[in-house]
Specification:
This protein is α/β, with parallel strands linked by helices. It has helices at residues 41-49, 80-96, 110-121, 152-157, 184-187, 193-199, 232-245, 264-280, and strands at residues 21-26, 68-70, 100-105, 125-130, 159-165, 181-183, 204-210, 247-254.
Length: 312
Amino acid sequence: MQTKTYAGIPEELAKLEKAKIVLIPVPYDGTSTWQKGADKGPEAFLDASSNMELYDIETDSEVYNQGVYLADAVTENSSPEAMVEAVHQATKKYIKKNKFVTIFGGEHSISIGTIRAFNEMFPSLTVLQLDAHADLRKEYEGTACNHACALYEASQNTNLIQVGIRSMDAIEKTVMDTEKTYFAHEMALDDTWMDSAIDQMTDNVFITIDLDAFDPSIMPSTGTPEPGGLLWYETLEFLKQVFEEKNVVGFDIVELCPNKLDKSSDFLAAKLYYKMLSYKFLNQGAEDDYDNTYEKDTQKNNTSKFNEDDEY
């Protein structure tokens, strides 16, 4: 990454010891199967961010004052498995430093590593997935660390809520929990889906957003665009409600495939990231301490933290 600080913020706000927020770029595109280019996503996102107004009108805030540390990019690409482990370790390292950890990809396979780290550190984790695709294959093209498998592990080990799904393979139906899946064609006809999805979440929520969740009319620059997606304000309304009602412990955004002739998608990704930070820190002053409440004693590879009998 050539960018010196996130969004060009002052260097004193970009130092690790000062920042409450960590941003990890992961320029990886090793398993995508149609349009390549997600490895260029982090750089395009950072470039757009540096040209973005940093006052958020809706929240009347300038969240960059909370401090954002731009971590070294995870560039491991010797194998999908090695990349996932590198992302896992980098994410976990910064969670342990009591930071609000965010990740920008890269293709969706990077989320296997991010979710694994958050699931190890936070009890009873809900993973909220906004996506056009289910990504629930157990294995694809010889590896479980494929973009088509991005949420399989989460489906087995966390409370997975899927929103915006409109493309999948029949085999994924055998894994999917349809009671916690909000299909795009149903969402278009039922405006109660937001409350329903939030009601099914536990207190701790990690959000993973594949940008193809958005309709290609507003987000064309992604590897596998699908018609019938989410629009801007309904997505913000939903996310704001999640941040208000739940403890969002971190998030990742993936699958920006920049197009040099169309910068609008880059700016959508940049604004989305900044909006989510603005919602997270809406009622916190820059001088307030941040505590990410991670579980110091959580055991590695705990696969039974979510109990469907839990009240939430």
